[in-house]
Amino acid sequence: MCYDEQVISAYVDGEIEEPLHTEVQKHIESCVYCRSRQAEYRSVKELFLAVRNSPIHDTIAGPQAKARVWQQIQRKTRRESIQSFWHRKIQIPLPLAAGAIAAVVVLVLTLVFSPFASGIFSSDQSGAPLVLQEDSRIPEVPTNYLASENNMPELEQLLRFLSDQGAAVEVKIQLPSSSKIQVSGEPQLLRAADFRGRGE
Amino acid sequence: MKIHSNDPAAFQGIYDRTFHIIVKVAYHITLDAEVAEDICQEAFIRFYHRTVPFPSEDQARYWLIRVAKNLSFNYYKRKKRERSALERYSFEPKPHQHNGEELLMRSETEQLVHRAVAQLPDSLRSVIVLKEYGNLSYREIGKVLHIKENNVKVRVHRARNMLGTLLKEEEAHVL
Known about the structure:
Number of helices of chain B: 8
Structural class of chain A: mainly alpha
Largest sheet of chain B: none
Number of helices of chain A: 9
Radius of gyration of chain A: 46 Å
Largest interface: A-B, 33 and 41 residues
Low-confidence stretches of chain B: none
Helix content of chain A: 55-70%
Oligomer: heterodimer
Low-confidence stretches of chain A: 123-136, 145-149
Radius of gyration of chain B: 18 Å
Order of helices and strands of chain A: HHHHHHHHH
Shape of chain B: globular
Number of strands of chain B: 0
């Protein structure tokens, strides 16, 4: 009795295991029809083998193609990982988010209405802009900086002194009343002095 | 051992052992080397983005081959639709475009086989491509296509019978 053609096809593919493999082999040797089926399937398979041995078949799966595709994958995944850092979605539970918002609101309100804040800023009820309060602890500049050629300090020194004393420093700069002044020092100061002199 | 696709070592290992199968399968479905590389790249990027781990490396490979096979068939069908639309409106059949180097490298036998395989229905074509170009066993093909091993055997047999007839029609000296 002949085997099914599917078995012959599977035999050609080496997919038949022992002991059936030996039985099929013996049958094919003795059966003309099954031998012709085997030859037909084998010839079709050999055509594919010829294609597999063609140059392009080696080229498409060669080391150059492999490296090329690998580089493309690396480039794309690296770019996406950088982008995804900035577009990352974060899931926060609603109670936690509400708690965080409430904490921020309480912190802001505490800062605005605390004695520390009211000591620094005084808000006028009429809506006038905030002004710096006079503070008795504010130190005075030890040197009377007159805008003369001899004792005019470097502007950097003056600024350093001001920054060392903090923001609440009262600064008095006495500018010359005459518009005829010698050109020296910072241009901004000179321009201010010149303008004031003209105005008077 | 579970395979996490975003683990660099696992990813590279699977790439090294699967690239040649995927690119050959993609090429013999699309018949375009550049497209095959693009499909290969796309399949591995999808693999990289997959968050669910694979139970084994074999399962990861089957998944990759299935994705590449599906992408290749999608491409082939889209191109076929485009070509048929072009032919309808231009009243003149346009041959599929390949670059010159590819055409030179293709032997007459190769072109003959490609033409015959292209006429197979997708269910038989995918099986024969995975068997003959991917060099996968019936069991592996079954895992890739989510079909039983016996079904693979039936499809391979049908594909061979059809190819025999088609090749005879093409006046190939198969027998």
